[in-house]
Amino acid sequence: MSDQPRVEIYTKEDCPYCEKAKDLFDAKEIEYETYNVTGDDDRFEEMVERANGRKTAPEVFIDDELIGGWDDTSALDETGELDEKLGIADDGDDDDVVEHRKLIIAGTGIAGLTAAIYAGRSNNDPLVIEGDEPGGQLTLTTDVANYPGFPEGISGPDLVNNMKEQARQFGAELKNGIIDTVDADQRPFRVELTNGDVYTADAVIAASGASARTLGIPGEDELMGYGLSTCATCDGAFFRGEDMLVVGGGDAAMEEATFLTKFADTVYIAHRREEFRAEDYWVDRVHEKVEEGEIEIMKNTEVIELHGSQEEGVDHVTLVENEQGHPTDRLDDPETNEFEFDVGAVFFAIGHTPNTDYLEGTGVEMDDEGYLRTQGGDGGGQTETDVPGIFGAGDVVDYHYQQAVTAAGMGSKAALDADEYLEDLERADSSVEEAEPAAADD
Ligand code: NDP
């Protein structure tokens, strides 16, 4: 369409956030041009120059204006400003109810998409709201080797895209957007998106996953996207030949460190205590890389500051080390050693926080970290929260297993539980309807 603004997206190969950016514009039916910077030095230089020194893809431009990477683009989308820039902002009354749905599913990760497949097959006509990380965390994973049925493994984005296709085949509708609030004081529930769209729904499945944690240390805000990243798969290749630091001691840290050896001069892992949380499989793989001289492990070590600039990227970090572990809790201990350490890129792999803010005020019980409490146990109703009609599945509930296959299992349970709830609701409604004419006859 010629009257839409010109949208340009710099992309690279194996870049889940680039796919998310493209999905976002596809969902808005906006045409765009893409420039792949992988292996094209001139394009890469052009991107860096136009993006004021940023070296991460995607970089999005609208009519030559720098919008930024995926985080910036989705943040603008959340406030509705992206639609304004694209000339597609809804100028109607924000408070108008757009549509009533039997079932709204929050999230298009593995849990949400599995719920959508099952709910579609049960004729519950699910509307799936993509959330601010469409496709969920698996879109950031290169190879998923342990999802049953794929003996050769499958890439995270491929698995998610297959599930999206399967969900659509069964009648699920996927909509780009982020749920801002769910009002449980009224039935049907009132579900408001951050762009002002409002739906009503008889049931809601919360499958909105969890987002990457950060440390909140000096330098973090300035350098995020300029050498600091929470996604090695996305950004590792940009720092080819540099020394890289991975922070964390779980499976993600081990997997990312192993992956980064493809690009890095040396990968350093900083972990705050002596024992790794990661399973033996990953620790063994990391130790193989240590033997080969590609990874060095720094135990009982934490980062307290990042140094660098948006023009030059990360230059060095300040680390603290204490052999008793958790050195930031022992900064006054004379045994705590503080030192500067040169690295060209830093990757945080320190876990995730559940995305459950939009359920605050609904009465759904959560733990201190924001994970939803569901019924659990044996028999039906395991995914019920303590608000009838709101169900939870995947990483918003599960702080322990957090596997794609367990998320899928919980997604299917939530759809089955929601189906039972919706059937009960329908039965109750129809018995009221039958009783009313009888009462009028009296
Ligand atoms: P985890 O919660 O398992 O690990 C987080 C790591 O970060 C821990 O080692 C933790 O240290 C450290 N950490 C947390 N907060 C801080 C902080 N403020 N400062 C310093 N270090 C910190 O998260 P992951 O993302 O690694 O894994 C989540 C789930 O996903 C797990 O169930 C995991 O098995 C799964 N997964 C599986 C993969 C695979 O098998 N392919 C790959 C990636 C993840 P401490 O140990 O001291 O708490």
Automatic annotation (TrEMBL):
Keywords: Disulfide bond, Electron transport, FAD, Flavoprotein, Oxidoreductase, Redox-active center, Transport. Residues 7-67 form the Glutaredoxin domain. InterPro entries: FAD/NAD-bd_sf, FAD/NAD-binding_dom, Ferredoxin-NADP_redctase_2, GLR_AS, Glutaredoxin, GRX_bact, Pyr_nucl-diS_OxRdtase_2_AS, Thioredoxin-like_sf. SUPFAM superfamilies: FAD/NAD(P)-binding domain, Thioredoxin-like. PROSITE patterns: GLUTAREDOXIN_1, GLUTAREDOXIN_2, PYRIDINE_REDOX_2. The keyword Disulfide bond applies. Residues 102-411 form the FAD/NAD(P)-binding domain. Belongs to the glutaredoxin family. This is Thioredoxin reductase. It comes from Natronolimnohabitans innermongolicus JCM 12255. The lineage of its organism: Archaea, Methanobacteriati, Methanobacteriota, Stenosarchaea group, Halobacteria.
